[in-house]
């Protein structure tokens, strides 16, 4: 879960949002958002999911046997070329 929380924190910072702004959208105090980001509390899955949506992200469950293929497709890892690109990269 730590990786997910780290990515959500990075997304919040990239969007220029303060912890208090995220907390307001979630109905949580800033101090609780801070504890989540610092690993000081073990948030409920629903809280993490809501936080992801506020930050324009989505949690997705991937079957373990497909994880390496999904990573390769998304990141082009392990020598595989990325097989997709965002519309912005496509010039659309």
Describe what you observe in this structure.
- The protein is mainly α.
- It has two domains: 2-54, lambda repressor-like DNA-binding domains (434 Repressor (Amino-terminal Domain)); 60-92, no CATH class.
- Helices cover 58% and strands 0% of the residues.
- It has helices spanning 2-14, 19-26, 30-38, 45-54, 67-75, 87-90.
- Helix 2 (19-26) crosses helix 3.
- It is globular, with a radius of gyration of 16 Å.
- The model has no long low-confidence stretch (mean pLDDT 87).
Number of helices: 6
Largest sheet: none
The chain-level mean pLDDT equals: 87
* DSSP strand content: under 5%
**What is the quaternary state of this protein?**
single chain
CATH architecture of the largest domain: Orthogonal Bundle
Sequence stretches where pLDDT stays below 50 over 5 or more residues: none
Q: Could you name the CATH class of the largest domain?
A: Mainly Alpha
- Distance between termini? 35 Å
Write down the secondary-structure element order. HHHHHH
What would you call the structural class?
mainly alpha
Shape: globular
CATH homology-level superfamily of the largest domain: lambda repressor-like DNA-binding domains
Number of beta-strand segments: 0
Binned, the helix content reads 55-70%
The CATH topology assignment of the largest domain is: 434 Repressor (Amino-terminal Domain)
């Amino acid at each position: 879960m730590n990786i997910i929380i780290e990515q959500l924190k990075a997304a919040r910072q990239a969007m220029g949002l303060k912890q208090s702004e995220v907390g307001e959208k979630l109905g949580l105090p800033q101090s609780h958002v801070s504890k989540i980001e610092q690993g000081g509390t073990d948030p409920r899955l629903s809280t993490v999911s809501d936080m992801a949506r506020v930050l324009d992200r989505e949690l997705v469950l991937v079957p373990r046997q497909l994880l390496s293929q999904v990573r390769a497709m998304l990141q082009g890892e392990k020598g595989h070329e990325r097989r997709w690109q965002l519309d912005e990269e496509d010039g659309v």
